[in-house]
Write a structure and sequence with these properties.
The complex is a heterodimer of chains A (183) and B (187). With 183 residues, chain A is mainly beta. Chain A has one helix spanning 2-19; strands spanning 24-37, 43-57, 60-72, 74-76, 84-86, 90-99, 111-125, 132-148, 151-164, 167-181. Classes of the chains: A mainly beta (183), B alpha+beta (187). Chains A and B meet through strand 5, strand 9 and strand 10 of A and helix 1, helix 2, strand 1, strand 4 and helix 5 of B.
Chain lengths: 183, 187
Amino acid sequence: MRRSLVLTLLALAVGVSAARAQTDIGIGAFGGMSIPIANDLSTQGTMFGVRVPVRLAPWMVIEAFYANSALGDAEEDFGGPTTFTRDGGEVSAFGATALIPFGGSEFGSGLRFFPFVGLGSYSLTRDGADDIDDMGVNMGLGLGFFVMPKLALDLRGEFAAIITDDTSQKFGNVTLGATWFIF
Amino acid sequence: MKKLHLLFLGVAMLALTGADCFLTSAQVLATFDLPNPFTIDASNNMEELDVDLTTIEEYKDNKDKLKGLTDLAILGTFTNTSGPAGTVEVYISADENASFANAAAVVAGATKLWGPASIGPSTGPNNVVTLGWDESAALFNSAGKQILIDEAKGDGHFKIWMVGTPGGTYNIRVDDGFIVLVLDAGV
């Protein structure tokens, strides 16, 4: 049901963009690091992913994304002679993010600052534990600029939370990305 | 356009402010030290252990905000000091006053929590086993795990039994044993 909701939102974004006469659509890749927040079971790891931004209006970009994080293992000796290692786990997610660009005189030029907020379907897998498949939210700030008329680079700081009933598993992500605008 | 920006950001901030119940949470590691060492001996083929989680500082600090357990493991070094190859299992009872005469009674009257973990014969090269954290986490039985979760959310006081292979006549010493819990708690 949660995946259906995310897919419906994505379909809606694509549908709205198709109805517009002038729409910018791109494809991008990103990579960086993922840092668990208030979580003793994982340590900092790496992440990568792809994005498909669709500019619906000068002030609004909807972006479909897929992301994967390989979190670092936790190591503990518990005060004994043996050090034990717990698999940090792997997070995969897909969903949609809404970006609100500020700055830049026109699309395709200038430095842009953009807050963003999104929704996704997250899956957390860890050796020896049941998989966690839940809805999650993400939000953050980005800084982007065009190095060429159709090629943009961006740096983002993101907070993501997988909502597990009354609690959540949270991560801080820092990524560098490149996006090529096709249309 | 600026009004639309501000409206969008305002809605996002309101949504997050209202979501503090799940955002202000943490996964906190807590360990309960088992007696060091203890022995599953041939006389009754089991060892009874009283577990009181309220003796753990991290548990006491988070008990009133505890939502559940994210992860569990039983760790330690198991040494077969006499006897053939066998297995070790752990059983649990929510009743801290429960008592059983022998391993067969434990198996019949308590709920399996963890295992089996295999150990080689006392004369063989695999007579000492230190399970990995991942491997141990995978050995939990869902019914016993639920009792442990309920106890952690309840008074935190329960009893466990380490049991050797039924019918076996051996001694297994457990050194540096821990119950490892990752608490899912509000902050």
